[in-house]
């Protein structure tokens, strides 16, 4: 499944909508991640909105001042955390929350971050596929292809992209050793991918490293969610199998 990370990152879900302007609540009424995120009025698929979901009461339920390590994948038990870290307070009380996160995340950007511009598991960069004008060049359903990404193979997010490929295996493509021909609308597959990517967990806790968030997962998850969650009239594969009846089980995954 292909998507254009350079396109996503260039778009940059930032700006005035993500500003909270050094907001401080009276009597700590809003001194929680949930309440402060609501006050910040964050763009729907921004990275900070993702952190709000992951670290707020519906996720790890941490405090505004708890330290969260930024990692590239799950932290190494022996090496520990040697990279950057943040608290939700310093991000949410910044003039521009998204810019504040991006600045912290870029402090120790390494080669793995540059490679993310190319691929993440079965989710690979192909602007033509995203715009619907060319075929998928990283297609799980094609048995001649393998996951050769530098990061993300075997991840939950990569599984979302695999499901998207299987969903797009519509009439005319036929069945392959990996995928059965189905009858799903392209727009349905796109909407499912957006939801699946958004719900992937990119943050966790371990006794040896404390709270941590995988920055590559956060970037990829929000990028995919934003691009494929544009609605049935704008989604990348909206013109694929428009007459599909969405009756196969994969159409709802």
What does this structure look like?
The protein has 253 residues and is of the alpha+beta class. 35% of the residues lie in helices and 8% in strands. It is built from ten helices and six strands; from the N terminus they run H-H-H-E-E-H-H-H-E-E-H-H-H-E-E-H. It has helices at 5-11, 33-40, 47-55, 88-92, 97-105, 111-116, 127-130, 156-167, 186-199, 215-228; strands at residues 68-71, 85-86, 119-120, 123-124, 203-206, 210-214. The strands form two sheets. A four-stranded mixed β-sheet has the order 2-1-6-5. Helix 8 packs antiparallel against helix 9 and helix 9 packs antiparallel against helix 10. The model is unreliable at 4-27 (pLDDT under 50).
């Amino acid at each position: 499944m292909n998507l254009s990370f350079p396109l996503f990152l260039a778009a940059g879900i930032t700006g005035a909508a993500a500003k909270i302007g050094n907001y401080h609540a009276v009597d700590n009424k809003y001194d929680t991640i949930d309440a402060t995120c609501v006050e910040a009025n964050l763009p729907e698929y921004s990275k900070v909105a993702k952190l709000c979901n992951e670290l707020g009461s519906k996720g790890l339920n941490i405090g505004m001042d708890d330290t969260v390590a930024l990692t590239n994948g799950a932290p190494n038990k022996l090496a520990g955390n040697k990279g950057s870290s943040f608290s939700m307070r310093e991000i949410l009380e910044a003039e521009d929350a998204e810019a504040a996160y991006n600045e912290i995340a870029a402090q120790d950007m390494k080669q793995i971050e540059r490679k993310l511009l190319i691929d993440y598991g079965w989710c690979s960069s192909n602007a033509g596929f995203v715009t619907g004008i060319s075929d998928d060049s990283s297609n799980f359903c094609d048995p001649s292809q393998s996951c050769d990404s530098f990061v993300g193979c075997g991840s939950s997010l990569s599984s979302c992209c695999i499901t998207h490929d299987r969903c797009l295996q519509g009439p005319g493509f036929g069945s392959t050793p990996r995928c059965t021909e189905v009858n799903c609308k392209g727009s349905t597959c796109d909407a499912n991918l957006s939801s699946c990517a958004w719900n992937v967990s990119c943050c966790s806790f371990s006794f040896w490293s404390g709270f941590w968030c995988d920055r590559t997962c956060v970037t990829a998850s929000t990028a995919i969610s934003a691009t494929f969650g544009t609605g049935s009239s704008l989604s990348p594969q909206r013109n694929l199998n428009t007459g599909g009846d969405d009756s196969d089980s994969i159409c709802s995954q």
